[in-house]
Design a protein that fits this description.
The protein is of the alpha/beta class and 420 residues long. Helices cover 33% and strands 6% of the residues. The chain is built from 12 helices and 4 strands; from the N terminus they run αααβαααβααβαααβα. α6 (195-208) packs parallel to α8 (243-261) and α8 (243-261) runs parallel beside α11 (308-327). The chain is globular. Residues 1-30 form the signal peptide.
């Protein structure tokens, strides 16, 4: 065992191994780990609080920032004299639009997100493996609002250039149960089956917040889910293909919740990450080899190697299903609601170094979650997708800041099926 799992990971590896060993075959929506048991839910939440307080916050820690900056894991830093990439003049409508097809970036007043640890921002400023557990919510690619785009490129930090009064983004680390998480309802370890609950939870938060004018404010919600389903569930199902019908039920339920309770809402349904890319990483650090087997056994453990091709096909089918769901008429009947599929991870490749190795400066310490620079890359890709017409959206990402799309006088609107 010592030859496979390095001693440098210490007790945390033993903890993860213990949890991994308890995974038992499930049936899709069934329980697959002890942490899913209702009897342990309260204790698990308490454990997360203890770990969060024990490890401490990292996202706002200047020392952690400098360490990651030195390692090249933080995006390029821009000075205050450097202008934003786009001309923001006229990008907030003089009269609040009533149609989602006439929505400009500056019209977004409220922002939210649901998903798993990638949306929670885990690992963005980690300097050791334990710190990957910390949810750097202020640095999340789709919902973090810490600093500005000059330090941390995120979707809210882009939208703040168009509407400085944007609301809903967290600005610091925090568990989803804390008020500081605001409208980031994502949970580390979440799977598709958790999305209907997260959607209801997010709606309740918005409805109960006095700063939200639920009928008049335009809202943007980003949803990405699937990594944990691919990594830790499909290989324990008697019929893995059934996960597609479960996922369809879950996503449709969440989207209907948004449609029925949130007027004036634009939903980004982001393609699920193609986690099979982990198997193609070049010159992977040994500690990442170990962590990948722990975090993603379905695609990387030896015992499931013969089924890997089958599972990769399921990931592709999952994303095609999501694309189909986003295009369904029921989500485009209301003039003030739209679901738009953003496919920037569908044909995902990862940046490489000059020598041809995978560029791990985009990854956190476990090489599964992203570094701050990696989250900035995802933010840039999502933003580009939002300005690309439906049917003509990029399915891969460029290095951050090399391609940064802007709304124009000719097409100032966020792209929907109705204006594409």
């Amino acid at each position: 065992m010592a030859s496979v799992y390095p001693r440098t990971l210490g007790g945390f590896t033993l903890l993860l191994l213990a949890l991994a060993a308890t995974i038992t075959p499930g049936g899709g929506q069934a329980l697959i780990t002890p942490l899913d048991s209702p009897l342990l839910a309260t204790k698990y939440r308490g454990f997360r609080e203890i770990m969060f307080n024990f490890i401490g916050q990292t996202g706002n820690n200047k020392n952690k920032f400098l360490i990651n900056l030195k390692k090249g894991k933080v995006q390029k830093q821009f000075g205050p004299e450097e202008p934003f990439f786009c001309n923001t003049t006229g990008m907030r409508s003089e009269t609040v639009p009533t149609s989602v097809d006439r929505l400009r970036p500056g019209d977004i007043d409220i922002i939210g997100a649901i998903g798993d640890s990638l949306t929670a921002g885990n690992g963005a400023m980690a300097t050791n493996i334990l710190e990957v557990l910390i949810e750097n919510k202020g640095l999340s690619w789709s919902i973090g609002g810490q600093g500005t785009w000059r330090q941390f490129l995120t979707l809210p930090n882009i939208l703040k250039e168009y509407n400085p009064k944007l609301y809903g983004y967290p600005t610091k680390d925090g568990l989803s149960t804390r008020k500081a998480s605001l409208f980031n309802a994502a949970e580390g370890g979440a799977m598709s089956q958790d999305i209907p609950y997260q959607a209801r939870n997010l709606v309740k938060r918005m409805l109960s917040d006095r700063k939200v004018d639920i009928n008049n404010h335009w809202k943007m919600i980003t949803l990405m889910i699937g990594g944990n389903d691919f990594c830790a569930e499909i290989c324990y199902m008697a019929t893995p293909e059934k996960i597609l019908q479960y996922h369809e039920k879950n996503i449709v339920s969440a989207l209907r919740t948004f449609r029925d309770y949130l007027p004036r809402t634009f939903v980004n349904l982001a393609a699920s990450p193609k986690v099979d890319i982990l198997a193609r990483f070049k010159n992977k650090p040994q500690e990442c080899v170990s962590m990948h087997v722990i975090e993603c056994p379905c695609l990387l453990a030896t015992r499931f190697r013969k089924q890997r091709e089958r599972f990769v096909k399921l990931i592709e089918d999952w994303n095609m299903l999501q694309m189909d769901i986003a295009a369904r008429e029921e989500f485009h009947r209301k003039p003030d609601f739209a679901v738009v599929y953003q496919p920037f991870t569908m044909n995902l490749t990862f940046p490489e170094t000059a020598s041809g190795d995978t560029d791990f400066t985009y990854m956190s310490l476990d090489c599964f979650h992203l570094s701050q620079k990696g989250y900035a890359l995802a933010s840039n890709a999502l933003w580009n997708n939002m300005l690309e017409p439906v049917g003509g959206k990029s399915m891969n990402w460029e290095r951050e800041f090399t391609l940064f799309r802007c709304p124009s006088a000719e097409m100032p609107f966020l792209r929907t099926p109705g204006n594409s």
